[in-house]
Write a structure and sequence with these properties.
Helix content is 30%, strand content 23%. It is an alpha/beta fold. It folds into 2 domains: 124 residues, Urease, subunit C, domain 1; 273 residues, Metal-dependent hydrolases (TIM Barrel). The structure holds zinc ion.
């Protein structure tokens, strides 16, 4: 035990609300006076004390109960009075594509700035890259894990397209892995698994502009799914249209990476029952639909269709995972996505899509909640999302594994 005087001084500093500038080498971190939401369903703790040590949450308790905590003098005290603490966010649909090429050798400062603008300033502590150049993303992941770049935990899925299904919105010179047969898809999936990727992403519907959508056959979907599932890895699908959705579901895909961008599209009772039976998760990507066409009226229709799909799926008890397709889209601000999602579900359900849902779905039991013993992946907000769901975008600090990776 350290001398009680040191603990008393630590407590005094804490009660005075003194704060220090964030330094990432600090191992103990204190946040006192904030409102903490331990999870989307647990009652909040007002005026809490939160202590983080060695990457984990050591204490989270009402401030007046935190009398005898033994804090080292070097503890970093964050300015938390009036703030709101929630668990670190997952973005289950991002891309490290444009601007991230040459990630193995690009200057760390440049990548750090991009990482902040795109992800960490919006609270993301874990992200799923659903298709980029694996060499770039894997290099970026290594540099983040080495502490050279402050960033989220990066998971990556390898892409497979149907034969001839080079979507019109991707540069023609991009080499896309296209599978003509189940055997080819199985080989590609095995290749991705051998590279150490964390999942597979299938384009079960490729958008071809004026020409019809090119869909991936169910047998091809199933071949890739079998390889991933044999290793306990998830499979995402970009559905695009009804056939793309049906082939994805019939082939056993785990997650629909988008709602379906069609005015008038609706999940049928049978679709919803199948998704429930197969535990299919849904990533709404509603903001994306404001970027795919120039006509604002059509944008509104696509967003409305997505909101209705989300509402129908959510009301049947479906698992919603937050995701924006950022990196493909350049709208980094998450406020609009929260507002759109808020039309279909409550703010706590939106928080669940950012925290508890992905940690449960992707089997990361030490993430997603602000509780003793959990990973210290935290977002400290300037305002309470219970009063306005868009406040989930008002990030003051992003903390990953007990280190401040973004500070406003
Ligand atoms: Zn995407």
């Amino acid at each position: 035990m350290k001398p009680i005087t040191r603990a008393a001084i630590g407590l005094l500093l804490m009660l005075l609300g003194l704060s220090a500038r964030a330094a990432d080498h600090s191992t103990t971190l204190v946040c006192a006076g904030a409102k903490v939401y331990p999870s989307p369903t647990a009652p909040p703790i007002d005026n809490a004390v939160l202590i983080v040590g060695e990457g984990r949450i050591v204490t989270v308790a009402p401030r007046n109960a935190a009398k005898y905590y033994d804090l080292p003098g070097s503890a970093l005290k964050l300015d938390c009075v009036g703030k709101v603490v929630v668990a670190g966010f997952w973005n289950s649909h991002v891309h490290f594509t444009s601007g991230w090429d040459g990630a193995a050798t690009a200057p760390a400062a440049k990548l750090q700035t991009q990482m902040q603008e795109m992800l960490t300033r919006w609270g993301f502590t874990t992200v799923w890259d659903l298709g980029s150049t694996p060499e770039d993303t894997m290099a970026l992941r290594r540099r983040v894990d080495a502490g050279e770049i402050q960033g989220p935990k990066i998971l990556m899925a390898g892409d497979i397209f149907p034969k001839g299904g080079h979507p019109v919105y991707l540069p023609a010179e991009m080499k896309l892995p296209q599978a003509a047969t189940p055997q080819e898809a199985g080989q590609m999936a095995k290749g991705y698994m051998a590279m150490g990727l964390d999942g597979i992403k299938l384009f079960t519907g490729a958008y071809m502009g004026d020409k019809p959508v090119i869909n991936m056959d169910t047998a091809i979907v199933k071949a890739a799914v079998d390889v991933a599932h044999a290793q306990g890895k998830p499979v995402f699908a970009h559905p695009q249209n009804r056939v793309g959705m049906e082939n994805a579901l019939n082939g056993g895909v785990d997650i629909l990476a988008h709602t379906i961008p069609e005015w008038g599209f609706a999940f049928t009772t049978a679709d919803l029952a199948q998704m429930k039976r197969q535990h299919t998760a849904l990533i709404p990507t509603l903001t994306l639909w404001t970027t795919v066409v120039p006509d604002t009226q059509i944008q509104d229709q696509l967003v409305q269709a997505g909101v209705s799909e989300l509402k129908a799926y959510f009301s049947e008890g479906g698992t919603v995972l937050f995701g924006t397709d950022v990196g493909f889209i350049t709208k980094y601000d998450t406020s609009q996505e929260f507002e759109f999602m808020g039309r279909a579900m409550g703010w706590g359900d939106v928080l669940a899509s950012l925290t508890t849902n992905p940690s449960a779905y992707f089997k990361a039991p030490t993430k997603g909640r602000v509780e003793k013993g959990m990973d210290a992946d935290l977002v400290i907000l300037d305002a309470d999302p219970a009063t306005d769901v868009r406040n989930l975008a008002k990030v003051a600090y992003t903390i990953r594994g007990g280190k401040v990776i973004y500070q406003k």
